[in-house]
Specification:
seven-stranded mixed β-sheet; 8 helices; binds S-adenosylmethionine
Length: 271
């Protein structure tokens, strides 16, 4: 199972992905759909009810927002879950507003979510965890790299680094994480591990060249920029492993299937 540490570099500048137009980021696109729906509904409803001297009927108006937002989401061919979110957002917001809940609770909920899901907001990288079987498989893949320096980019709760540090006492295992609550739980988990370095930091500032093996379980959105960073910084002979998300336009040197419930796939790239 172990992947040989040294093979000729196989990727060249010619393999670089072509430059594409950058689409609107999902949260801005969602805001744009809701704003367009509100504008369309209000530009008809306000004059209509204004001329009749009547107040806007907010429950019906919220339903109209939802219907128009759904229409726009369908016309712009958004995935089904976005259509559902757009259809329900304004009507549900109207219902919740009617409950007269203290706004402080919403602020508290938003802060708690940010403490865990900061990566989802800033870079479309949410928190989900590698399985124990994945960590064992990584230990197997890297068994022929004695004393390896391993880095988990966006290390979550330390699910990989804790297990790998135990399985490989010869290795120096690092994790970098920047969601506050997640980082803190990972810190508590790793502080007893002598060969484990748990760092607060941004994956985009991490020095990949200092590591023999870099592991990432991020999101499809992060892969193009991450692969560019990997190619720029990692040393020849080192290994990049991406859980679930392949690098587009570059074939992996090995695809390792993990026998876990999630049927995890590890895409392995030798530099
Ligand atoms: C899918 S989780 C993977 C967690 C862990 N590597 C594992 O396999 O169990 C991605 C992690 O990356 C973190 N993350 C996202 N953007 C980051 C950034 N710019 N810098 C550091 N960590 C980030 C998230 O907070 C999240 O914990």
């Amino acid at each position: 199972m172990a992947l040989p540490p040294e093979t000729p570099a196989h990727s060249t500048a010619a393999e670089d992905e072509p430059v594409k137009a950058v689409p609107l980021r999902p949260h801005l696109r969602a805001l744009a759909v809701q704003a367009a729906a509100a504008f369309a509904v209000l530009s008809l409803a306000w004059p209509y009810f204004g001329l009749r001297g009547e107040a806007l009927p907010w429950p019906q108006t919220a339903l109209a927002f939802g219907a128009v937002a759904l229409l726009i989401a369908c016309l712009t061919r958004q995935p089904w879950w976005w259509r559902l979110i757009h259809a329900l957002f304004a009507p549900l917001a109207g219902v919740v507003a009617g409950l007269a809940i203290d706004p402080g609770w919403f602020l508290l909920a938003a802060i708690l979510m940010l403490l865990v899901y900061r990566g989802a907001v800033s870079g479309q990288i949410p928190l989900y965890l590698s399985t124990a079987a994945t960590a064992s498989t990584i230990a197997e893949i890297t068994q022929n790299r004695p004393g390896m320096r391993f880095l988990d980019l966006g290390a979550g709760l330390g699910s990989v680094v804790v297990r790998l540090a135990n399985a490989r006492p010869d290795a120096r295992v690092s994790g970098v994480e920047n969601a506050p609550a997640t980082w803190f739980l990972g810190y508590l988990r790793t502080r007893g591990s002598v060969n484990c370095i748990w760092r607060w930091g941004d994956i985009w500032q991490a020095k990949l060249g200092d590591h023999d093996v870099v592991y990432a379980f991020l999101s499809p959105a992060a892969m193009p920029a991450l692969w560019a960073k990997v190619k720029r910084e990692m040393q020849p002979g080192s290994l990049f492993i991406s859980n679930s998300f392949a690098v587009q336009a570059t074939e992996a040197d090995a695809l390792v299937e993990v026998h876990d419930a999630r049927q995890t796939r590890l895409y392995c790239y030798r530099l």
